[in-house]
Specification:
Blueprint (H helix, E strand, L loop, with lengths): L12 H13 L4 E8 L2 E9 L15 E3 L5 H13 L27 H5 L5 E2 L3 E2 L12 H14 L3 H13 L4 E3 L7 E2 L15 E4 H12 L3 E2 L2 E2 L3 H7 L20 E2 L18 E4 L5 E5 L4 E7 L11 H18 L6
Helix pairs in contact: 1-8, 2-4, 2-7
Length: about 325
């Protein structure tokens, strides 16, 4: 997949400088930004090196970052595909209809909806901290169950499903689960046991992560071809959070954080318009889609040190989103 650069790329000095400052404050050696609007790349910025040693590779368009929890959006797409193909009847089905080797008493009354929206109340696979659908708690218990569910439903692991149904058809060549260090990877000295999609070793170039967001923006349409049914992507970014959840809690689609109303606990920028959606990963990587402005924005970082006292992690991602939103509001032109 490839999008062309816009002949006019201006208006991003403040955003890029903010990213440069953030990179310095959190002691990240590598940083990158790509912004797409109306089907063109309108901003592409790279800074730093893959590591702190003098021989480290400079960051460029080929550099591939560990996207950390942003990987959940790929899992969400696989679940959405399973629904479209009738492998799942409804996200309100009990999890135990699809996974039979987990403790049924712990999973009682827990649905796929709860897993997708962090409202399941599970802590690991053997403990419950609140009844399903009553609160919101971000952890990976639901993620791990859904990864197993994908394998059960498709008969192959998540990484293979994504390659066969998404990455291959759309021409993604710089996205995938990787077990061993390669030259193009911004490697964080991790250790992984496999490359099948069950661990947090999904790497992507900055452009291809932006293209992933672009496919959600266009609902799978690329160069006039509807390769994947639009409903698969549309479902992912539609709010699925139980309606009765406390209004202060975030609203999620299929793992995406979705903007609908001011939410005190949301990571989305306060100035972003309704319908915007975002995913944020541990090392600072994030993908933001603003449909009303036809914008996709990605930031990449390789933060490994704890946040300094002067840095607010949530405020940092909100500021990034607000700056992108300000550009969108000032350049909100319909595609020609």
């Amino acid at each position: 997949m490839q999008l062309e650069m816009s002949p006019s790329t201006h208006g991003f000095d403040e955003l890029n400088q903010y990213m440069r400052t953030t990179q310095h404050v959190i002691s990240a050696t590598a940083a990158a930004v790509v912004v797409i609007q109306n089907g063109h790349i309108v901003n592409e910025w790279y800074s730093g090196y893959h590591g702190s040693s003098s021989s480290s590779r400079p960051v460029d368009a080929k550099s591939r970052f560990n996207v950390a929890s942003v990987r959940k959006t790929y899992l969400g797409a696989a679940i959405s595909l399973a629904i479209y193909e009738g492998k799942i009847n409804s996200i309100d089905d009990p999890v135990t209809d699809y996974i039979t080797d987990c403790a049924p008493d712990i999973l009682s009354h827990t649905t796929i909806r709860h897993l997708l929206t962090h409202t399941h109340g599970l802590q690991g696979h053997s403990k419950r901290i609140f009844p399903p659908g009553t609160e919101w708690k971000y952890n990976n218990a639901g993620v791990n169950l859904l990864i197993q569910m994908v394998k059960n439903l498709f008969g192959r692991p998540l990484a293979q499903v994504m390659q066969e149904r998404f990455f291959g058809p759309y021409g993604f060549t710089k996205t995938g689960w990787i077990q061993e260090e390669l030259e193009e990877l911004v490697w964080l000295h991790e250790a992984y046991s496999n490359d099948q999609g069950s661990e947090g070793n999904l790497f992507a170039s900055t452009r291809e992560l932006a293209y992933w967001g672009y496919l959600h923006l266009t609902q799978g349409l690329y160069k006039g071809k509807q390769i994947m049914p639009s409903a698969v992507f549309d479902t992912c970014s539609t709010i699925a959070t139980p309606v009765a959840l406390d209004p202060a809690m975030p609203r999620n689609g299929f793992f995406w954080w979705v903007q609908d109303a001011p939410r005190p606990l949301s990571e989305l920028g306060t100035q972003l318009p309704e319908g915007s959606y975002q995913s944020l990963g541990l090392y600072g990587n994030a993908i933001l889609v603003i449909p009303v402005y036809q914008i996709v924005a990605v930031r990449m970082l390789n933060q490994t040190e704890p946040n300094p006292p002067t840095y607010d992690y949530i405020q940092g991602i909100q500021t990034f989103g607000n700056l992108v939103g300000q550009y969108g509001a000032a350049n909100n032109q319909k595609p020609s």
